[in-house]
């Protein structure tokens, strides 16, 4: 593929309150095609909207809304975002002058004479080289990255809940299948015992049927254990106590072909992890600029005013205040190489951020392409397994009738049972796998979705 320089022009226009770093690293990425290579040609270029609603499952919508109110990892992401915003305000405060005041009283003994003093002092660094500005803007970009991290956490939790919900549905269906199989094996055992009593089969047939029933009972126990574990996984995501008591009588959604998914280039403005990496790249560049500026002289302005006297009124008398102002120009001469080392460290961190951004973009494209390709393959697999299940079920019915008439053996019957059970189990798993991949596809393209209490999508490109 033709290589091109990494250009952040689109992203920079969205960063309204941050300056462009002088640090301009060069890196290369594959040029993004106009459309995904695995995308069917009939799909448009409009990004998918409200993918949870598109699943057609009201229960899933309710579960995602519940998770948004109680999921612990979302609470952690929100706290990190609040901390990042506070840090940005701390960094921005250095752009303004500082003002402090003092009020003192002193008693002199012997004699008990009191004296009062009052003063105001102010200082401000003139940002000659943009060090303070770049540091403040880097903090703002870090806060924006934390906001994208929060959006990413929301998208991730929605996806985890959706996948856990359909995993639980699969587990329930597999348990029901195992229970039906157990009943079938018991019916076969009862039939075999009746035939044995009439001298039509040998005792080994009875023992074989009993062994089959015992194996089915073990399978039921295993399936029930998996179902309870899946329920607890979902309950934990919802912030509930994992009691394995969540209702789960839903079914897999009927999936149509995926709607318009946008283009690979759209991912650079949609995916929260890409946007967060982009802002961290810009932040690291500004910090590299600030570290270089720290090698240059700095200009500080300071001023103070105040007064004193034997009473508080004298100390606060404006007419008697004494004021002064000063300016100082300082330059580093010898710091043991500290400032140059900090500059080199910031430069290396910026290069690291560039590589991280490139890796994040490539991973985003890979996830989207994988999910798109798998969607087509899994659709075909589900249909093939459906046919295999239907044929195996028909064959089992035929062998059951043949065994009842004495023209088939117990081994042929048990083999037909096993083939039908295996085919149906694979069909159930394939349906869940296809739904899970569709969720992965929406996660890969950062698809929008709605949450309770808001008429707007919770995940919206470019917010």
Quick recap of the structure?
The protein is of the alpha+beta class and 463 residues long. 60% of the residues lie in helices and 11% in strands. The strands form 2 sheets. It has a 4-stranded antiparallel beta sheet.
Quickly list its features.
disordered N terminus, two-stranded antiparallel ribbon, 463 residues, alpha+beta, 6 strands, four-stranded antiparallel sheet
Q: β content, as a range?
A: 5-15%
Shape descriptor = elongated
Distance between the termini: 31 Å
Q: Provide the low-confidence segments as ranges.
A: 1-18, 453-463
Taking all residues together, what is the mean pLDDT?
Answer: 85
List the helices and strands and how they pair.
Layout lengths: L2 E3 L3 H6 L13 E3 L20 H4 L3 H13 L1 H22 L4 E11 L4 E14 L4 H67 L5 H35 L29 H4 L1 H22 L4 E12 L2 H4 L6 E9 L7 H67 L5 H35 L19
Antiparallel strand pairs: 1-2, 3-4, 4-5, 5-6
Characterise the protein shown here.
With 463 residues, the protein is of the alpha+beta class. Helices cover 60% and strands 11% of the residues. It is built from 11 helices and 6 strands. The strands form 2 sheets. The protein has a 4-stranded antiparallel beta sheet with strand order 3-4-5-6. Strands 1-2 form a two-stranded antiparallel ribbon. It is elongated, with a radius of gyration of 35 Å. It starts with a strand and ends in a 19-residue tail after the last helix.
């Amino acid at each position: 593929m033709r290589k091109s320089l990494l250009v952040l022009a689109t992203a920079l226009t969205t960063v309204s309150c941050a300056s462009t770093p002088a640090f301009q690293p060069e890196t290369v990425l594959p040029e993004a095609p106009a459309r995904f290579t695995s995308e069917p040609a009939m799909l448009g270029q409009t990004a998918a909207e409200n993918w949870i609603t598109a699943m057609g499952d009201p229960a899933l919508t309710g579960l995602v809304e519940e998770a948004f109110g109680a999921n612990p990892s979302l609470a952690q992401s929100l706290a990190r975002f609040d901390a990042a915003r506070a840090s940005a305000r701390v960094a921005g405060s250095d752009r303004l002058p500082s003002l402090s005041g003092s009020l003192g009283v002193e008693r002199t003994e012997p004699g008990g004479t009191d004296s009062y003093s009052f003063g105001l002092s102010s200082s401000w660094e003139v940002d000659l080289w943009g060090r303070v500005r770049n540091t403040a803007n880097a903090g703002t970009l870090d806060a924006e990255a934390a906001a994208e991290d929060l959006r990413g956490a929301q998208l991730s939790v929605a996806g985890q809940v959706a996948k856990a919900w359909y995993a639980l549905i699969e587990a329930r269906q597999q348990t029901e299948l195992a229970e039906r199989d157990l009943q079938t094996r018991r019916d076969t055992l009862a039939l075999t015992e009746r035939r044995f009593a009439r001298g039509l089969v040998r005792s080994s047939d009875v023992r074989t049927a009993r062994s089959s029933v015992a194996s089915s009972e073990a399978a039921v126990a295993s399936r029930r254990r998996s179902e309870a574990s899946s329920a607890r996984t979902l309950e934990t995501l919802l912030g509930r106590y994992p009691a394995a008591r969540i209702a789960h009588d839903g079914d897999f959604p009927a999936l149509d072909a995926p709607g318009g998914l946008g283009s690979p280039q759209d991912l650079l403005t949609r995916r929260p992890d890409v946007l967060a990496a982009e802002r961290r790249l810009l932040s690291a560049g500004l910090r590299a600029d600030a570290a270089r500026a720290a090698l240059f002289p700095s200009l500080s302005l300071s001023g103070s005013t105040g007064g004193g006297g034997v009473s508080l009124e004298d100390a606060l008398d404006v007419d008697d205040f004494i004021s002064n102002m000063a300016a100082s120009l300082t330059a580093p001469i010898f710091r043991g190489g500290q400032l140059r080392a900090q500059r080199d460290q910031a430069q290396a961190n910026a290069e690291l951020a560039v590589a991280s951004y490139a890796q994040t973009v490539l991973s985003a494209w890979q996830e989207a392409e994988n999910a798109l390709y798998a969607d087509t393959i899994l659709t075909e697999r589900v249909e093939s397994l459906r046919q295999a299940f239907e044929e195996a079920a028909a064959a089992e019915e035929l062998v059951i009738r043949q065994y009842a008439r004495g023209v088939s053996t117990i081994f042929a019957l048990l083999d037909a049972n096993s083939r039908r059970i295996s085919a149906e189990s694979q069909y159930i798993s394939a349906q869940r796998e296809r739904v899970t991949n569709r969720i992965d596809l929406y996660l890969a393209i950062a698809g929008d979705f709605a949450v309770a209490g808001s008429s707007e999508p919770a995940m919206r490109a470019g917010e």
